[in-house]
Write a structure and sequence with these properties.
6-stranded antiparallel sheet; Jelly Rolls; alpha+beta; globular; 19% helix
Length: 213
């Protein structure tokens, strides 16, 4: 009976802990593409801190579709169509990443057509370390068109602590892709959840010990 109680306690505590995990502040600048007052090229988008990453293509801030606010970033003509945030353009202020933390990187994507009718359109995140290479997240495929889709990747960055570039890529061929509400943030447990976890676990262990006596 005691073992069952302890097992139940462990499962309950883990569930409460997971439910209490929240996201910290977004580490990206102008993540919703609402500040359209300047560019960071070449080649430049008229969007602060963002520009098109390699493979050609043209970009602009667009009011065609927006997940939140008024603007999204529209890119077309490249393969991949990429949005890149270069931290050097922020005055050299790199993003500090903690190898002990788990991070969520995500973006909302709007497609007007699929690159592959069967597989969909490939979405890939990248965090770069300058001359030390990059860390790519898992590959995701968006299969929906004419609606906003949230693409989310959970990642632990090991070996490097200073991110000099972050990008999201859509291998969409010549078709336009819209990005909005990009996010890079650490997943941290709420203090209340940690306290509740400890209190509940200790309480149940105490109950189990009394039962054994």
């Amino acid at each position: 009976m005691t073992k069952r109680i302890l097992l139940f306690t462990a499962i309950l505590a883990l569930s409460l802990f997971i439910a209490g995990v929240v996201q910290a502040d977004n580490l990206l600048w102008n993540a919703g593409f609402e500040d359209a007052s300047g560019g960071a090229g070449p080649p430049a988008l008229p969007l602060n801190y963002w520009y098109i990453a390699d493979r050609g293509g043209t970009g602009q801030f667009s009011t065609d579709y927006a997940h939140t606010g008024e603007y999204s970033a529209k890119i077309s003509g490249g393969n991949p169509n990429s949005m890149k945030q270069d931290q050097v353009s922020r005055g050299g202020a790199k993003i500090d990443l903690d190898p002990a933390q788990t991070y969520q990187q995500s973006v909302w994507v709007y497609l007007t057509a699929l690159a592959d009718p069967q597989l969909g359109t490939q979405i890939l995140f990248r965090a770069g370390w300058g001359t030390n290479g990059y860390d790519a997240g898992a590959t995701y495929y968006v299969t929906q068109t004419n609606q906003w889709v949230h693409v989310v990747d959970t990642r632990t960055f090991t070996g490097n602590t200073e991110c000099s570039m972050w990008s999201v890529r859509a291998f969409s061929g010549a078709d336009a892709v819209y990005f909005d509400d990009a996010d890079l943030s650490s997943m941290v447990p709420e203090p209340a959840s940690i306290a509740g976890l400890l209190t509940g676990t200790l309480g149940m262990f105490g109950f189990a010990i009394r039962r054994r006596k």
